[in-house]
Design a protein that fits this description.
heterodimer, A: alpha+beta, Multidrug efflux transporter AcrB transmembrane fold, Alpha-Beta Plaits, four-stranded antiparallel β-sheet, two-stranded parallel ribbon, 10 helices, B: alpha+beta, Gyrase A, domain 2, 2 domains, 12 helices, 17% strand
């Protein structure tokens, strides 16, 4: 099986997906949730069907957060409504809670989240710092255990996975909160993990098959580790899908990000990272 | 005979590990995060005033007052902790009316007695005790008693203001504005409440004292008990389903070794629970996701080992030799692959807080336990079965002879 010989095809596929994602990112931007922008989110459940309009009527009557985004949701298996609005005082949240419970007897407040603008800014900075710190640590470790070019290529593969995940979220317009940051960092960890297993085999082949050209060493490594790559990604993706469908609404976004990222991660280890090593080798030997 | 003896020892070691993990789990149980058991997470930030800047003394003062207020809620294991130079994190597990509690906790609660010109005559510091009560007309009131010093001062004030109004304010909000009828020394009442509940809340604030500086509530997250329970049930069901599917896949692909892998996964799950319990780590909803993800990593370690053994078998080695060589070569791969993930988990734990940190911690613990399981449990279990016919079967480890 000649995977690395067709590397231009793989590069093209990746570039197309990333470019489409970036276009959506530039046009639509990301749907940042209250964790990043600050604001309040309150979720109620009811045993009867309650419409967004009915909830808005209540908010208008008490003159709190009447301009909220109100959305019907089926999160707790019952009828639910999610209210999103600007940063509120806890007094105001109590007032909304009381007013809703007065109007709808079966109402229960499932959760409330209030994030001030300072916290949102800090989260954005910390998320960025965490990603930069993780990348530096990974480059250092791989340069130490392998060679610098392996490190450089893994970082490109990792950016590839992160860009694809963010791009698809921009396309889908799904809301992004703190768990998304955790998902991105997990993807970084997984992507590197996956890439290293193949690099480990390339490193081994460079010793065992030192007479053949590098592209051959690398291709053999990729093909030999293919069963592992496929089995591991299938077992991981099975568990992610199981949680996505049966784990409840609160972790769906998180699982969706993991699914996209892990899929991209498996793809990039086979079709981006190893081919890039070959491209790197060619540019140097020329 | 030697082989059989060794095998017995290996079996005993594995059973001992399982028993120890089960003991830790049963002894300590797993700490559930606020998102799973319900409760409130609050972040407060101290605001400097013209008279006071934020320093260590001021912060300890705030923590002190907040602790006393939280104790009035009668919760089990509330957590109050300083974060950075000017923040305080309060966690209230299983609190009934979380937002009302937040409301009470975050109040400055500076009680002032003012004359009609708005001059402050006396502050809440002069108050020794305050309780909610009903007055002679059955109205809800806060009855207070004054300290010795306070009594003298209040007697002077009321003597001076007889027939005039003295307003009583809590944080600039006027509670009542009575006309002084007589000289008051030790005891007094604050009227103007609509319910005894309101009076009770203010009584707590007045009794436990004011915060040295105002605080701003910058983040609150509350989860009702229903949602927490639903989350636990759903994620456990999803996790078990995921495990089952993975086990089926492994058995389908690797045959008998796949069965072993499924058993190893179950043992892994048990050791993981034992470790979480032993370390008293807190399990959050993202943490459950982290656990399930680390199951993926644990399976991966087994896959890497099996694939290596398969390669060695293909190159013509005997089963025993292939197992030895396979493990040896899989070790470095597994270490290199997992160290980077552990680094990411550590970095994530450092830069985040709350539930996401819970995720990072569980992921980190999960990966370390999975490495232990791969190097120790998998190795011994495969060794135990190395002599049996089941592993010698042709299709074992997914080897396809053709």
């Amino acid at each position: 099986m000649d995977i690395l010989g067709k590397r231009k095809i793989w590069y093209t596929i990746s570039i197309i997906v990333i470019v489409i994602g970036l276009l959506f990112l530039l046009i639509n931007g990301l749907n940042l949730g209250i964790d990043f922008n600050g604001g309040t989110l309150i979720e109620f459940s009811f045993s009867e069907n309650v419409t967004a309009e009915q909830v808005r009527d209540v908010l208008e009557r008490i003159e709190i957060a009447a301009d909220s985004k109100i959305q019907q949701a089926e999160s707790a298996g019952e009828h639910g409504v999610i209210i999103r609005t600007k940063t509120l005082e806890s007094e105001e949240i109590v007032a909304i809670d009381n007013a809703i419970k007065d109007k709808f007897k079966s109402a229960e407040m499932l959760r409330s989240e209030m994030v001030g603008p300072t916290i949102g800014r800090e989260l954005r900075i910390n998320a960025l710092l965490a990603i930069i710190a993780a990348s530096i640590a990974i480059v250092a470790y791989i340069s130490f255990r392998f060679e610098f070019r392996f490190a450089a290529v893994s970082i490109i593969a990792l950016m590839h996975d992160v860009l694809i995940t963010i791009g698809i979220f921009a396309i889908l317009g799904r809301e992004i909160n703190t768990p998304f940051v955790a998902a991105i960092l997990t993807i970084i960890g997984y992507s590197i993990n996956d890439t290293i297993v193949i690099f480990d085999r390339i490193r081994e082949n460079m010793k065992l098959m030192h007479k053949v050209p590098f592209i051959k060493q690398a291709n053999t490594a990729v093909v030999d580790t293919l069963p592992r790559s496929i089995n591991t990604s299938i077992t991981t993706l099975i568990t992610i899908l199981a949680i996505y469908f049966f784990g409840g609404a609160s972790i769906q976004t998180f699982m969706l990000a993991l699914f996209i990222g892990m899929f991209a991660g498996t793809y990039s280890s086979i079709f981006v990272a190893s081919p890039l090593l070959v491209t790197w080798q060619e540019k140097i030997s020329r | 005979m030697r082989y059989k003896q060794k095998r017995r020892i290996k079996l005993i070691i594995i059973l001992a590990i399982i028993a120890f993990a089960a003991f830790l789990y049963l002894q300590h149980g797993i700490n559930l995060g606020l998102d799973l058991q319900g409760g409130a997470h609050i972040v407060l930030q101290a605001q400097p005033t013209e008279e006071r800047e934020i320093n260590d003394t001021v912060m300890s003062g705030i923590v002190n007052v907040i602790e006393r207020r939280v104790n009035q809620l009668g919760l089990t294991e509330p957590l109050i902790q300083r974060q950075g130079s000017n923040r305080i994190i309060v966690e209230l597990p299983a609190v009934d009316n979380p937002n009302e509690a937040i409301n009470t906790i975050g109040r400055t609660a500076m009680l002032t007695f003012k004359n009609s010109q708005g001059e402050v005559l006396m502050t809440g510091e002069a108050i020794k005790d305050a309780r909610a009560d009903h007055d002679q007309y059955g109205r809800p009131v806060v009855s207070f008693t004054l300290t010795e010093e306070g009594s003298e001062k209040f007697a002077d004030i009321t003597r001076q203001y007889i027939g005039k109004k003295i307003g009583i304010y809590l944080d600039n909000e006027q509670l009542t504005n009575p006309t002084v009828q007589a000289v008051i020394e030790e005891r007094g009442q604050i009227t103007g409440y609509e319910s005894i509940q309101e009076a009770r809340e203010d009584a707590v604030l007045i009794r436990e004292g004011a915060l040295p500086v105002p605080v701003e509530v910058i983040e609150t997250r509350t989860v009702g008990p229903t949602l927490g329970e639903i989350s636990i049930q759903k994620s456990i069901r999803a996790g078990l389903l995921g495990l089952l599917l993975v086990a089926i896949y492994m058995i389908f692909y690797y045959r008998f070794p796949g069965v072993l892998a499924a058993v190893i996964l179950a043992i892994y799950g048990l050791i993981l629970m034992g470790t979480m319990a032993g370390l008293q780590a807190t399990l959050t909803l993202p943490g459950i996701a982290g656990l399930i993800l680390s199951i993926g990593m644990a399976v991966d370690a087994n896959i890497i080992i099996f694939e290596r053994i398969k390669d060695e078998l293909k190159s013509g080695k005997t089963l025993r030799a292939a197992i030895d060589a396979g493990f040896k070569r899989a070790y470095t791969t597994i270490i290199d692959a997992n160290v980077t993930t552990i680094m990411t988990a550590l970095i994530l734990a450092y830069f985040t807080s709350g539930t996401v940190r819970g995720f990072a911690v569980t992921l980190g613990i999960g990966i370390i336990v999975s490495m232990f399981t791969a190097f120790f449990v998998t190795r011994n279990i495969i060794d135990i079965f190395a002599g049996s016919k089941l592993l010698r079967e042709n299709k074992s480890f997914g080897v396809r002879k053709g």
